[in-house]
Structures are given as structure tokens and as C-alpha cells.
Amino acid sequence: MKIKRLLIFALFSVLAVVLSPVAHTVEPIQLPIQDWHFSGPLSTFDRASLQRGYMIYRRICAACHSMKHVAFRNLEAIGYSEEQIKAIAAEYMYTDGPDEGGNMYERPGLPSDYFKSPYPNHNAARAIHNGALPPDLSLIIKARHHGPDHVYGILTGYEAAPEGTALRAGQYWNRYMPGHIIAMMPPLAGNMIAYEDGTPQTLEQYARDVVTFLTWAAEPMLEDRKRAGMKVLLFLLIFTGIMYAIQKRIWAAVR
User: Fold this and answer.
1) What confidence category does residue 32 fall into, taking pLDDT thresholds of 50, 70 and 90?
2) Which residue from 105, 173, 233, 252 could staple onto 161, CB 3.0 to 4.6 Å apart?
3) Contact 193, 59 (CB under 8 A)
4) CA nearest neighbour of 154 among 207, 97, 195
5) How big, in percent rounded to 5, are the helix, strand and coil portions of the chain?
6) What are the boundaries of each domain within the chain?
């Protein structure tokens, strides 16, 4: 009797899969694959692009998204001097203490402080964004499949919704977003931020620069890891040659 019930259950499971509506199938999204400066085995980060990307994050993205795993002192790795880092950190106020009287107090930021969140807590963030919690961007590149291309696609993929598609208030159509509906308004547009180095001020360039910065934030030791890997491969290559020569010498008499 138990075997009969199992067979009936298996039959209904197969029928449920076979007869399920085709509408439930999800069309795969073709991401805009980019040629990134940091993607090769010997490649490095473009320091100018990193600094432009940080400027975009600071002026645009930081209004809604935190980066709680990045400290101001880490900016030295992308080319900022100690004086510049101190000046940037001092623009933000942090709650510290208690002092000798047991009271908390406000102080300017220090290089050792982490990037300040735009919200006091998650509930405050959800209240501002109609229940949606803007993700922290510290590891967003690592958290998405094909992270750099995915984030670049989201930033450049806003377009008018197809005819007949109804969007609620606060919703936008993005061709690279899974499901195509996103609650984040288009954050970037051409000529939003002036580049003093003459770099084109286009949406695509802004997106490339901020993605470069976010990739560095997610994996700041990427360049060191690549250098270490090449040293290990070189050592193994030399070691293999030495061991081959030893093997030939040991077995020469036998032959």
C-alpha cells in the first residue's frame, strides 16, 4: 500500500511539471559584456577610473546606499594622499563617546572611520523607500553573477516600459534587471558630473567608473592576489624544470 501511494505521488509530480504553464519559464537576460581593465590575469585597476568612480559614489550613490566595509583610510590604495583622506573624512559627523561625563558627542570623521551610512538603521531606510531596503554596495559586485557586467547593465539598462505594461508608482523598467521591474530610479545620466581630466561625461562612462570602484571595494587585494599567483606559477615552472633535470641525472646510469 505504501509503495502504491509513492507511485501515485510520483505520477502527480511528473504531471505537475509537464502541464505547468509555459509562462512560468524565465527568459535569460543577456548582460552587456564589457572589456574591463581589471579582468585579465596580469591586469590592474585604472587609478584614474577608481577615483572618478569614488566621486560618483560619493555624490550620487551614497545618498541611498551604504558601504559599511570600506574605511576612509582605504582610499590611499586608489591614489588619495593622507591629507586628502583626512579632509574627506572630516566632512562627515560621527557619534562617539561616552566622554568623561558619560555623554555621547558628535565629532568629525577620521581616516579610521568607515563610510557613513545615509540611514540610522534599516527600518528608517525602508520607511524612506516604501519598504525596500537599498543594498549595501561594499560587496555588491561579489554578490551578483558576472558582477561588473550585471551592475553596469542595471545602471545603463533603464528604458520605457513595453506598451501594455503597467508600472506602479516608484517602479521603473530595466531591460537587464531580472523581471525587468526595479524600484530604484535611474541614478545616472549624461553630463551629471564634471570630469576635470577630460574623460567623456556619458552615462556609459559614469557606469564604467563606478563599477570599477565597486569592484575594487569588493576585492581590494585583487592586484596583490594576481601578483602572488604569478609568482607561484613562476616558482612551480622553475621547480618543475629543476626536478626534471634531477630525474634525468638520477636515471641516466640506469639507462
Assistant:
1) very high
2) 173
3) yes
4) 207
5) 45, 5, 45
6) 222-255
